[in-house]
Structures are given as structure tokens and as C-alpha cells.
Amino acid sequence: MIYKKTALDNGLNVVSIPMPHMKSVSLGIWVAVGGRYEDEENAGISHFIEHLLFKGTLTRTSRDIKTEIESKGGSLNAFTGEECTCFLARMPREHWKAAFDVLSDMVVSPRLDDKDMEKERLIILEEIKMYLDLPNQHVHEILNGLMWPGQPLGMNLSGTARSVKSMALSDIRSYKERHYMASKIIVIAAGALEHRDLEDKASSAFSSMDSRRASGFEKANAGQNAPRFKVENKKTKQTHIVLGFHALPKGDPDIYILSLLNIIMGGNMSSRLYHEIRERSALAYEIHSY
Questions:
Q1: End-to-end CA distance of the chain
Q2: Across all residues in the chain, what is the average pLDDT?
């Protein structure tokens, strides 16, 4: 697929995939910050900021953010990963600039006040509890902790109850100031739009962001000399078991061989695990690998 890319003077990158036959445009503002940039004290702060950016800007209320996009037939969302935070929207082609205005305003000029933070703190604490009540989700959080003990990759992206309760608004503002910079942002759009129009919008919206050099994260330590295991007892009707192995780094030329092995082992209903565990032995409803 052909795409166009422009690097602005302040380091921000603009990428578009023009698709003139489409009736909509998908937009994403990607910020290179996530769980890998955190430590035990501020675990979950990237995710906390993602939530707070929906609470309002200097010129828009939380309701304005939603209605300006949804009233035009669009949708918006966001997510936080280990290495990025993304704010995204999808709009009818004639309204994509309105969606861009909202998303960029959220990223550049969030309100970030104490009242909003205290409300959102309670919501995130409930989110953490929700995943603890979903053993098929929680078991993977346990696995991450075993594979990456004492490291950001082993921590929950939502943080812990202790870390979320201890965060202050000054921590939020300081962290955002350090990481939400032009050199760590990519604006991406696909659909019925012109690259030049997207470039002009991005240049205007992010002109106030300076061109400081982006900070990175520490390299993960995959060293392991002996098996690690953990058993957590919960009053449920099923037992959830996961096995994890350190494999290949991203970019390794053998990653395609590993992907093929994954399909053979447990990637679909024809896989060996599915056939043996579910079809032949009827020991489980769900069995897969990834």
C-alpha cells in the first residue's frame, strides 16, 4: 500500500494513505510513550493520562469532545500499550478535519485538573478490579510478571491500586511534559483525504510543541536460569493455565518461522493443541497459542 510521509521541522511525523474511493477517514495520533517508560512508583501513569485527556481541554468540555465527533456520525477511542498511546477517530470523509481538531486539542491542550483526576482515579481503580475478576485476562498479567520480573514489561498497564492511589496531579503534568513532545508523535490518516491537507492541519495544531530530543526506555532483561511459576487460587468454575517462553526479538529474520510454528501449535482450529486438548480429549473449551 502506497503511503506518504512528511517530517515537520519540530520532529513530528505526518503519514497518510490516500484512499479517494473511501467514504470515511480514520485518524490516529500516536505518542511514543507507554508502560515501558514507567517504574513501580508511577505504574499506570501513561494509561491514567490517556483517560484524563478525554475529560476536557482548555476550550472543550468532555461532552464537547464526544458530541463534536459522534454527532457527525463518527467514533473515537484511545488505548495504551507498552510502547505507545494512541488517540483515534473515524469520521465521514467530509468531516475528518473536525475530528482532527478534537484529537489534536486533546493531546496539545488538555485541562488536567484535580477534580477530573479524582473522578478518573476511581474509575481506573474499578477497571483494575474488573480485570482481577476476569481470570482469563488476569492469568496473562501474572505471566507477564513472571517473564519480566521487576521490569516495566511485567507490570500491569493500568498500574496497581497503590500506584494509582498515590499519583498526584503534579506527577501527571510532569510526565506528560516529558513525553508528549513533537519528536515522539506520529499523525496518521487513511481514507479520502489529501496528504497536503493533513500536513497543514498537523503543522498548525502542533506548532507550539518544541523539538526536544525524545527519551527512550531501558532494554528489557530476558535472562532466566530456572523455571518460574505462580499459582493463584480464586473461587471460579474453571482453571486457567498459561505457559510462556522467551523467544525472538522483534526484527529477527526467523520471526516468520516462529509465526508458522505458532499456527501449527495453537494458532487455529486445525492446530495440534486444539485437536488434542479440545477435540480428542475434551479437556477444555478454549486452547490456543500466540
A1: 26
A2: 96
Would you place residue 58 in the very low, low, confident or very high pLDDT band (cuts 50, 70, 90)?
very high
Cβ neighbours of 224 (radius 10 Å): 12
Instruction: Please indicate, yes or no, whether residues 184 and 131 belong to a single structural domain of this protein.
Output: yes
Please report, as a single letter, which amino acid is at residue 52.
Answer: L
DSSP assignment string, 192-261: S--HHHHHHHHHHHTTTS--PPPP--PPP----SS----------SS---------PPTT-TTHHHHHHH
C-beta neighbour count of 204 within 10 angstroms? 11
Pair 44, 110 in one domain: yes
pLDDT classification of 250: cutoffs 50, 70, 90:
confident
In a domain, 232, yes or no: no
50 catalytic, yes or no? yes
Catalytic residue among 38, 41, 50, 194: 50
List the beta bridge partners of residue 79: 86
- The helix/strand/coil state of 22 is coil
Cβ atoms within 10 A of the Cβ of 197, count?
14
